[in-house]
Amino acid sequence: MESLHRGLRTLRRKWDREEWRRFCLEAVRTHPLREVIHQCPFTRHAFERPRGYAGDAELIDYLYNDHAHVDGLEYQGREIYRYMHDQPSARSVRERRELLAAELDATAERVHLPRILSVACGHLREAELSTAVRDHRLGELIAFDQDPLCLAEIARVFPTGPVRTVCGSVRSMLLGKTSFRDMDFVYSAGLYDYLAEGTAARLTRLLFHMLRSGGKLLVANFAVFPPETGYMEAFMDWWLVYRDESQMRALTAEIDPSELAEVKLFRDSVDNVIYLSLTRR
């Protein structure tokens, strides 16, 4: 696996995007090694896209939890999954969950019964780690996602309390058909990894203007080319939009600077994920 990751990373850097994509779609998909690699349930799930889109919440749950002891999982599949579960990007995803839970708690310390919005929330697993959610110190936590299966899982985990599920698409937000107001904290954990530059900047403006004065927007994006990028694209058909610090800062282009009380950029401890934090004046 080390040699495979290293080789794919080398090829990805060596070839232009068209040549690399052709290699992934033609050479990798017909190579006998693919059947071996796809014994890993995490890798196979990403490739097959059972919910119809990349990076679904079930896939992310493979990174949050250890599924290595699932019944019927063969030795090779289990060992490949264990390897992937311990990769830097996987550790970044788990750290992201912990960071978001801490932000939920910090918002409850800053504001009495705050209103919070999670955009493209997935299974909202960070809420399961939040003491503010557990102790009912949030006024409302809106879980917004286009996937009804995600919202059904959230409703199962949080049948009562401050969590409210809303089914809707980011497209509806961009078209002005869906909006929220007077939020104290708005965040999006994995969405921006799939958004083109113009769309991401426009959405950032819309989310920022959902904040009340003193409110905070936090968005995350994987940095340019984590070590597993070649494997993800070749064997998982999982293609992200990577951004560096200057590209993340450019997401504020449609926001009037006079409305910004604070702009912060920081990376996680693994150096894989960049966070953009905006506070409204």
From TrEMBL:
Keyword Transferase: yes
Keywords in alphabetical order: Methyltransferase, Transferase
Protein name (record): SAM-dependent methyltransferase
GO biological process, one term: methylation
UniProt source species: Archangium gephyra
GO molecular function: methyltransferase activity
InterPro entries linked to this entry: SAM-dependent_MTases_sf
